[in-house]
Structures are given as structure tokens and as C-alpha cells.
């Protein structure tokens, strides 16, 4: 019996919650997940445009997913004080701009054209107040080809050419003497790409180029388009945080649902998770936990009964059962479930008091173990809980299901096919 459904293209919500539901015997019963985020945030809507949603509004994001996915991210700060207005806070060298020249990725005519004024080197734009600081920082800007097709990111300390972002074909090449930690281009449609680079102690600027070797023809018109500049401390980019004069922080997303009081998972049950990994992992992370949530702090699984999915830095997936006052009683690891950032996996675990079957992407793995829980398991926690503390990372939840019966092997295979 499917006792809880969440997602799978069925998304409803209001401020402070997003709806899960129970449709047992055709009788629809709403089971809202509590949701909180103490700030506004952005998402990609069903029309493919970036839009702002209010504080405590859950973000169903449709980037590359027609069915939508619940977007949960950690707290991040955009250090750039003018993310869209390139006429303030930026140093322009041998370049000029035309503000509000074309339609941006949010569907508004507020993107900027930038074009060179001379044919010499270092026709660049740089955000002046930003200085090197410790740790990894990720920089991103939305860019679109105009008459020019290449945007080059140069690390000031590295010298020479940096990452060449080809806006005509979406291919990025790192030519820097000191390579960046990572880089990427993400297609946002209508010719727009998000150009992304991560570096330690960065100090760099964007250079206009027509072929990746710092050579352009200057005629007072030819250029390209930019919008949405972001600099955040961290090893991967998060959704755009808009700024209009001061640095802004998007706070942490949290989502939680109490298990219905008439549902018992102590002797049998099945949990299913359809999840897209959009983060660079540095330690074990738990995108879904079933736990004792008796005081609402979200970490009672450390000392009380719980179940959790664990995704590891190498992309492997593990399910783990933790029993009250005892060590992990069952832990099975499956390799390469999430081989790349942006990849999607389907996982389910079923237990009947004797056997545990863990199914990943249509393949079953079975343990024989007594899995009767001695602690209460009364909450479903979403939010990618990091190992042994409440630090959260990002992810997208496409579908979550909870059953109060153990599904068969064939049912698990069918449920987790990708």
C-alpha cells in the first residue's frame, strides 16, 4: 500500500508547506510537508524562465525537468553587490556597455551588451571591490553570443589565457597555466549559457574575445551579452541570488513531514527516492532520512532509530539502518549510482523483518538481517543532511514514496528503472 507520495509531477503548495498526499482506495488525503526558508530565492519556472519566489515558498524547479523537482539548497551569499546592473561597482577596461539591451533569462529586457573599444589585450570587465579570500569560490555569469562568441575568464594571479567559454556551441576549455578547480557551461535556452568556474583564492576578470586568443575586430558595436553575475564561497554554483546594491544571502531550504499516526514501519515497509545530484560531494550526505524527530532539531538519528540513504563522494549509494542505542545494523553500498553531477538515480529499500532488499536503477541487492526497529520512526526529513551535523547541501527531489508494506523484488525493479 502506497501510504505517502511526493512529487512525480504532482506539486501543490502554499507558504510554509509543500504537499505530499495519500490516495489510498481512491480517497485523497493531503499530507503537507512543512517547509521553511527565511529569505526569497530563485527557481526556473515551467516556462523556462528564472523567477523569484517569496520566503518560505518551496521551489519546484523545472530546469531540464518537465515534471519539476523540489530544489533544496544550503545557505549561500552572493558577494557581488550588483548582479544585473553592470554600470555600478565594475571596472571596465577598453570596453563599454549598453544596459537593458536584450531579453535576459528571466524574460525581461535587462541584460547588458558589452563591446570592446580597442584591439589591445585585456578588454575586460572586473568587479572592483572583490579581493582574494581563503577557500574555494565559485563565480558564474549568464552570457549570450552577439557578434562576438567567446568570453574568457582570466585568473589575474595565473597569468595568460584562462577558461574560454564558447557561446556558440557551449564548449568550455581551460587554457590557464594554473588550471581552475572546476568549470562548466549550463544551457539556459534562447542562446544563454551560465558560465561557471571554481578557484581557490580567486582574483579574475572576464575578457572579450572573438576566437579565444584575445583577438577582436573593434567597430564600436560588435560584442556579446551578460547578466546575473554571482560570486559565492563554495565548490559548486547554486541558484541565482539577485543583488541591487548590497551582498545578499539566500537562506537554507528545509522540508519535513511527520509519518501518519496510523502507519507503522517497525516490521515492514518500503521507501523510494528519485533524486538528482547537483552538488560536488566532499563527505557522506543523506538526501533522505526516516527518523525519530521528537524535538524537531533534525539530528535524532544519531542516537535513536533511523533509516537513511547515504550518497558518498565517489557517487556510490548506501542505505543504512540505525537501531536505538546500537551501531549501524545494515549497510550496503552500490557503486556509481551518481557518476556525475546532474545525474539522476532511483533508489528503494524494502524490509520485512527478515530480508532487506536495496534496489538501485533497476537492480536488486539483498541482505538477510533482522530489521525490526526498536526506536520510533516518525518523520521524513528532506534536505541532504551532512554527516554528523546539520550542514546541508543541495539536491533535487523528483519523487518520494513511502509504503507500509514490503514490495516484491519485481515491484522494486519496476519502481527503480531509469
Write down the CATH topology of the largest domain.
Answer: Jelly Rolls
What assembly state would you assign to the polypeptide chains in this entry?
A: single chain
User: What is the rounded distance between the termini?
Assistant: 22 Å
Shape: elongated
Number of domains: 2
CATH class of the largest domain: Mainly Beta
> Low-confidence runs (pLDDT<50, min 5 residues)?
293-305, 322-329, 385-392
Radius of gyration: 24 Å
Class per helix and strand makeup? mainly beta
For the report, how would you describe the main beta sheet? Answer: 9 strands, antiparallel
In percent, how much strand structure appears in the residues? Answer: over 45%
Please give the number of β-strands.
33
Q: How do the strands line up in the largest sheet?
A: 2-3-4-23-32-25-26-27-28
The percent of residues in helical segments reads under 10%
CATH architecture of the largest domain: Sandwich
List the total number of helices: 1
Mean pLDDT over all positions: 76
